[in-house]
Amino acid sequence: QVRFVESGGGLVQPGGSLRLSCVGSGTFFNVWHMAWYRQAPGKEREMIGEINSGGGITYSNSVKGRFTISRDNAKNSVFLQMNNLQPDDTAVYFCHGSRGSSNYWGQGTRVTVSS
């Protein structure tokens, strides 16, 4: 069974940093197109960045220059390094894997940015 599990969320002060991880299991991770999404309270889920199987990366304008996506296929993992976090970044963060017609969501990890 394919699974993606996020970790690394928590409470951080404005201007701080967090690194989220998403580990895949039950599949050959290298071939999956991976993306990070977030859903803030009362808002729709939005994609904030993605990395394809070849390592190509794109970011949403809301996080460009502050967040960095990377992947380590040897560890079946994708990462989201978040710097200069602001209260508007408060959300549940999800990783999403897609390959052809298949796609899977992680359960999410909560990030709260507050002083």
What would a concise description of this structure say?
This protein is mainly β.
Number of helical regions:
0
Radius of gyration, whole Å: 13 Å
SSE-based structural type? mainly beta
Shape type: globular
Distance between the termini: 40 Å
Low-confidence stretches: none
Overall mean confidence score, pLDDT: 96
Q: What is the percentage of strand-forming residues?
A: over 45%
Number-wise, the strands total 11
Q: What kind of sheet is the major sheet?
A: 7 strands, mixed
What is the H-and-E element order? EEEEEEEEEEE
Helix content: under 10%
Describe the structure.
By secondary structure, the chain is mainly beta. Helices cover 0% and strands 54% of the residues. The protein contains no helices and 11 strands. The strands form 2 sheets. Strands 2, 4, 5, 6, 9, 10 and 11 form a 7-stranded mixed sheet that branches. The protein is globular. The mean pLDDT is 96.
Topology:
Layout: E1 3-7, E2 10-12, E3 18-25, E4 33-39, E5 46-51, E6 57-59, E7 67-72, E8 77-82, E9 91-99, E10 102-105, E11 109-113
Parallel strand pairs: 2-11
Antiparallel strand pairs: 1-3, 3-8, 4-5, 4-9, 5-6, 7-8, 9-10, 9-11
Task: Spell out the key features of this protein.
single chain; about 120 residues; mainly beta; 7-stranded mixed beta sheet; 4-stranded antiparallel beta sheet
